[in-house]
UniProtKB/TrEMBL annotation:
Record-linked InterPro entries: GIY-YIG_endonuc_sf (IPR035901)
Protein name listed in UniProt: GIY-YIG catalytic domain-containing protein
Amino acid sequence: MKTKKELKEEYKQMKIPMGVFQIKNIVNNKVLIDNSIDMESKWNRHKMELKFGNHWNGSFQKDWNEYGEENFVFEVLSELKKKEVDNINYNKELKTLQQMVTKELNTESIYK
C-alpha cells in the first residue's frame, strides 16, 4: 500500500490539462470562452448545467436548447503547463491567459 507522501507525489505527476478552452456552436459559430485547472471537469460541468437548463449564460443556454448538444464542440485554445515552483496562482495565470486569447478573437462571436 502506498504512503500518503507517495500518493501526493503521484498526484503531482499527473498530467491534468489546464488552460483556456471554447465551447463552439457549429451552427452560428458563436463561442463561450472559459478556463480551468481541469478543463475536462469544467467541460462536464458546463454540459450538466446546460442539460438541466440552468447555465449562467442565458443566450448560450437558449442556443443549446435550440440547436442541441450535437451542435456544440469543445476546443482547447491554449494550454498552460504546470511549473516546478509550488507557489504559483494558476487561477490568476489562467484568467490572464483567457483575457489574452479573448482579445485575439472576434468579440462579436463570443457569448456574453
